[in-house]
């Protein structure tokens, strides 16, 4: 019975720590996006274009073989 209580207490403690960490990250992540709402969209667009361009280069290499 004591082991079960200890396990439950540890799980609760871990869950609370994870919840605090997620809240901390959410607060940190929210401020820049709130200040610059288009920055995230711009970053996704740039990364997508880079990946697409790299994919085209790889495709050209395979076609030339």
Helix-strand layout with pairing:
Elements: H1 2-35, H2 39-64
Commentary on this structure:
- With 65 residues, the chain is mainly alpha-helical.
- The protein has one domain.
- The protein is 92% helix and 0% strand.
- The chain is built from two helices and no strands.
- The protein has helices at 2-35, 39-64.
- The longest helix has 34 residues, at 2-35.
Give a short summary of the structure.
This protein has 65 residues and is mainly α. It contains 2 helices and no strands. It has one domain.
Radius of gyration: 23 Å
- Count of helical stretches: 2
Specify the overall morphology.
Answer: elongated
Query: What is the mean predicted local confidence, pLDDT?
Result: 73
Assembly state: single chain
Give the ordered list of helices and strands.
Answer: HH
Indicate the low-confidence ranges by residue numbers: none
* Percent of sequence in beta strands: under 5%
Key descriptive features of the protein:
single chain; 65 residues; mainly alpha; 2 helices; 0% strand
